Amino acid sequence: MSSTIPTFEARAYAASSPTSSLESSTIARRVPLATDVQIEILYCGVCHSDLHTARDEWHSAMPTQYPCVPGHEIVGRVTQVGADVTGFKVGDLAAVGCLVDSDGTCPHCANGDEHYCAQQVLTYNAPDRHLGGVTLGGYSSSVVVDQRFVLRVPESLDLAAAAPLLCAGITTYSPLRQHGVTAGKKVGIVGLGGLGHMGVKFAKAFGAGVVVFTTSPHKRDDAKRLGADDVVVSTDAADMARHAGTFDFILDCVSAKHDVNALLGQLKTEGRLTFVGAPEKPMEVSSFALIFGRRQISGSNIGSIAETQEMLDFCGEHGITADVEVIPVSRVNEAYERVLRSDVKYRFVLDMSTL
Description:
The structure is a single chain. The strands form 4 sheets. Strands 3, 4, 5, 8, 9, 16 and 17 form a 7-stranded mixed beta sheet that branches. The chain has a 6-stranded parallel beta sheet with strand order 12-11-10-13-14-15. The chain has a two-stranded antiparallel ribbon with strand order 1-2. With 355 residues, it is of the alpha/beta class. Helix content is 23%, strand content 27%. The mean pLDDT is 96.
């Protein structure tokens, strides 16, 4: 960190305490260094993590420092580049996801898995190595990020609908790819929200047979519209029995308490259940459900920068984006309350031109 780094003022929406609404503010951004890219933010998705952080709901693990500017689903245009930047030029479409830095030297970084680096720097509420304090996210007019963590956005994509790809997209794309979901595989997607609806789209695009598990029967038609071949109401034992023991892979996108053992019973021998949702409290898992089918449980956390670029390119080739509701920044507090009620199909996106 250097106190001599010059800065410029950017507009933002920030929370000043766990109980305050997000309000219009100004923040300092560093003037681009040699390897930095400055981006005018056009759209920023609203992730449930934004709400958790703004309200300091993860205090025991990741206490929030204020003022807090959330946002890690960032899409915009390059307005300035540092002298040593090679991959971007002024006017390019660009994106930033959940990370803005890592140590670059650890085994994870050397292996291209900077999202598992112990010294990773999150896009917001992480130590800012340049200006001190904490990083400030995408609810802002501008952001400056090292080129290693900036992504290219295909021109063919709707920019607002592309923003959630930077978190919801890669969070579901990565485990589906890592575990070999292809044509001929049968995949279950648990939960049809911001993450789950992207899981359906990707699994279908990979050629798999796709079944959605939901506790909400009214979501049946929408699940099929998104590409699901069938829908199972997970609280209905008879409905669950129809597919028992037939899945190669199940992606669990639910962050509330639910019956994991019932889902394990849906897997084939050697099938895998992967969590991308994070329930607040630990869930009970029967060892017998694993032992008698040689089944596996795993978790997955976003994806590497290279894999995120792969995902964006794949979306460009296949016309895949999130289903979004675009709103002005002034409605972000309303959006937070609606997120809590699951009252959005399926991701809010802030139009940053309204800032």
